[in-house]
Amino acid sequence: MLKRQYIAFAFIINCILVLGSPGDRLPKFKECVRKCDILTCGNSQGFNDPSKQELRNWKKEQMREGLFQELPLDWSLRLLGWECFPNCDYQCQRLVTEDRRAKGEKVLQFHGKWPFARVFGVQEFFSTIFSIANFVPNYRGYRMLRRDYRYEQVKGNTEIVNLLWGYLIISLVSLGAWTFSTIFHLRDTWTREKLDYYFAGATVLSGFYGIFCRVFRLYQIKADTKRRFFAIFLICCYIGHITRLTLDWSYTYNMQANVLCGFLQNIGWTYQSLNTFVYQSETRRGSASKKHIVKRVTDALHRDIANPEVNWTLLPIVLVTSVCFGMSFELLDFAPLGDLLDAHAIWHFVTVWPAYYWYPYMIKDINYNIKQSKLK
């Protein structure tokens, strides 16, 4: 679910990455890739043929030192989609990086990414593990929502069913997003990267649909037409979004679209949190205040900020804040610790715990602020 909270920020980072990386431009790296491709892949990329003497020297070096993996590749690599030339690219990244470290030189990025060490063929091991970890609470949340959805269907609570359906969409799309995030980090390819972004963009719109329906009460029966038109509108926006990217991929456009939707979502969750907090606080006093909203919020915070019967409604603010804080790890962007753990992987780790609390909050909000109150 929380992937929608950071994907806009990820697009900002990628706007920088696509400009190229210093490692790509190293003559030593280019020559290494050429040598590996000619020796092990049959010159699949059509590089300039070396002289006969140069080729003999390369073959002797390969026999003596075994710098490059020969075909066929290990089964674990083939299982994850590694092919000969991408494997050459990876091996040369590692060789150049190890050489630079031995000389005390700075580790460089290649193709906009750090030169990770593979684990059982997995390209970004910790990002993969933490993507899977993010899948777990979202699946747990999906099952909780599905259980309540079926229960409310039997009871005939149409309005609750409408809202739970919106939340179910969020959970299902989030499951898809974390699935493709896992696949992408297993083995980085352009096709997998696009699918990762497509599903991440879908989480932004699904999340926007969910909070929009809650804040503006589109789950109510009298708002059926508005809710359906809003859903159709968002679907059309998403189709247009994917079409735009298919015809002309643009990280800048992705960034702008997702930053806007993500910003509006955060405003929506913050408003929803404060609104229900004030309502619960004033309900306990027995009457609603007619003071200015800022004064009402201030008074409610003063009275009940430490009251667990009321302050649970502030949880979305805590979760949104923690997610935004986690984004700061992306700004660090340091070379992977042990060639495995980078800032992006840590960011994936940080997003695991909020999802465990977000779904129970949504269900509790329905039970206390809709079903058992007059806050509709």
From TrEMBL:
Residues 1-20 form the signal peptide. Keywords: Endoplasmic reticulum, GPI-anchor biosynthesis, Membrane, Signal, Transmembrane, Transmembrane helix. Its main location: membrane. It is found in: Endomembrane system; Endoplasmic reticulum membrane. The keyword Glycosyltransferase does not apply. GO terms for biological process: GPI anchor biosynthetic process. GO terms for cellular component: endoplasmic reticulum membrane. InterPro entries: Per1-like. GO terms for molecular function: hydrolase activity, acting on ester bonds. It is a multi-pass membrane protein. It holds the Pfam family Per1. The chain crosses the membrane at residues 125-142, 163-185, 197-217, 229-247, 310-329, 341-359. Belongs to the PGAP3 family. Involved in the lipid remodeling steps of GPI-anchor maturation. This is Post-GPI attachment to proteins factor 3. It comes from Komagataella pastoris (Yeast).
